[in-house]
Amino acid sequence: MVLTQYGGTILGPIAKAIGVIINYLYIGLSHIGIENISITIILFTIIVYMLLFPLTYKQQKFSKLNGKMSPELQKIQKKYAGQKDQASRLAMQQETQAVYDKYGVSPTGSCLPILIQFPIMLAVYRVVMNIPAYVTSVKAVYNPVVKDVMSVKGYDTILKNLVDELGIKRLTLHFDGTAKEAANSVIDILYKFSESGWKAFTEAFPAFTDDITSLQKSLHGLNNFLGLDISWSPMESLKLHVADGKIGLVALAILLPLVSAFTQWLGMKLSMSAQEEAMKDNPAMQNMKAMNMFMPIFSIILVFTSPIGLGVYWIAGAVVRAVQQFFLNKHFDKLDFDKIIEDNREKAEAKRAKREGYVKSAISQNGKLNTKRIVSPSERDEALRESEELKQNAKPGSMASKANLVRDYNNRNNN
Hints:
The structure is a single chain. The chain has helices at about 10-30, 35-50, 55-80, 85-105, 110-130, 130-135, 135-150, 155-165, 180-190, 195-205, 210-225, 235-245, 245-275, 285-305, 310-335, 335-370, 375-390, 400-415, and strands at about 225, 230. The protein is mainly alpha-helical. A hairpin with a 2-residue loop joins β1 (about 225) and β2 (about 230). α7 packs across α9 (about 180-190) and α12 runs antiparallel to α13 (about 245-275). The longest helix has about 35 residues, at about 335-370. The radius of gyration is 36 Å and the shape is elongated. The termini are far apart.
């Protein structure tokens, strides 16, 4: 891990964009007296899911309609079962697409929100792992202590020894580079300190105790989430606070993964209840039930081993989705889906008629163009007569006269 922002081709730009947004949100919250990264992440999460709501709405509408069109899709699958030739596959695809058109839905529409959310989550992980690299307001808090430390001769050796003693991992230090790179390396180390790390750091640089204490207080407010540091995982926090004897923080470190599992289960339960009756005979329902069992377990592992900041994003996202799903269920219960299906069927017929109209128009236009190319018998005879006159009147030595000589020679030999 280095203070330099992550430079991946795909996640790099996304992480930078998220960092800019979180930085502005943090600055905005600081104006009302809130200087806390975890609250900023929660606000960011709410904004992301509000922006994704139109896609979520389409996804849930697709799920509702999927229950009604499922029998037709299964009928098509049975019709072409075992037929693997290209013609059968093409026919199956066309009939399946016709069903989707009839109901006015897209088979890829339900996947889009997930495809968008996944890279955002990975980018948030990158940002949380290195908050000072993305949130300039946080990076500025470190500057006084960084300046103090770099004024000490041999500071780099002292810090390297601290890193080894404390067992800090995932660090790439650049003390031999530019002054900026060296300063970034100092911040990298400070960002990973636990309480024992800060104690050892203060002992290593006793002349700057006041500045170090001031920095600790500032960071405690910035990185604090109910007493836990968001840059540490619950697993790391659990080990630390068991050793410190802080039972409350130990309990919280255990509780966070469990809360993430519950919120995931609740969101999926609400989602399944919206389509369980309609899809009770659909084999895909069994896959959904299996996913409902898997996701809470996955959440426990993810949140327990990842930085708490990512866990905050994960839990906040699950809560927002559950709230959205609750109100979407209420909304869809009031809709007349038979009427929606009928309207979509009429739209599909209109589109089909329009496409057929384009095809007929193209065929007609092509026919007119081909007709223009047809030459009548009288026009053909006139063209041949004019060509013959040109040949007879050809000048001696010209290409035409030479062609006439060859023709006469061939005629004499043939006769």
